[in-house]
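Protein modeling request. Please complete all fields; requests missing the sequence field cannot be processed.
Requester role: graduate student
Desired output: 3D structure, token encoding
Chains: 1
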Amino acid sequence: MTCAALAPSDTLWSFCPSVAAAYLYAILFGLITLAHIAQAILHRKTYCWVIAMSALWQTLAYAFRIASIKAPTSVAAYSVWFVLILVAPLWTNAFVYMVFGRMVYNYTTAARLFKVKAWRFGLYFVLLDIIAFLIQLYGAASASGDHVPESQVLRGLHIYQGGVGLQQLFIFFFCYLAFRFHQNLNRQSQSTRIKQAKTLLYVLYFVLLMVTIRIIFRLAEYSKGLKSSIPRHEAYQYVLDSTPMMIALLAFNVVHPGRIMAGKEADFPSRKERKVFFKNGGRGVAGNGGGSELLPTTNAYEPVHGDVQASAGTMKGEP
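Delivered output (319 residues):
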């Protein structure tokens, strides 16, 4: 049976891709995208657009893969799916860091970890993720395109692998901090709220395991250069890249951060609220994991049974 993708003499495909598998994964990722958008709206968590974006990019990657299979000489379609499939998982990585920052805010007495405030903690790791993203994007873009010399393709892939390796290094460092945070949770009273927090933390571990499986695959894919046989067998990509990323996205559907850290009080205070609060010499508040609130009032607080009371009210979580 003739493969339509390989029929043209100037086809961009080196093997016969399965259009049925591409359709299946495009549909599945599309459904997951809709589910994440719906959950973000349901729980009123605007930061969840990040995980929805990860699912959307995976959906678009397979949509353009289908387009490329049907138009095997189209450089644009091939390049877009090739770049998207490589960089889409970075959104999932960034979401893990954002969720963890909010967990530090909601489930630590001082709303900080190693003297780093919760909102800055997430920001720092997202910035590191962006660095890895830009390196991977540059490498992937350099390796794709029309009439690209083999030496440039190989150099681009090596740059991409360097970005992937850097991403994994950040993950290892993050896991160490997550483990220390886990120890903090274990020292707290094991209420239902804390048990839910630990469940969410286990999900973060699991998602990063899925990301790591995908990273190992991507590092091995071109470890032997362009002569590697791995890229010519799409089953590897489906099993060791797209499927782990799909499972990671589904894990957040099942244990959604917006359900565990529910309500407006669980969200970070605005920058204006933080500035006003600290300008007034305020101190934060010990939290039980039910969210934190910053009040731009007085700093005359008196600890009572783990909480902090003030004339203006009671706060939870010390920023």
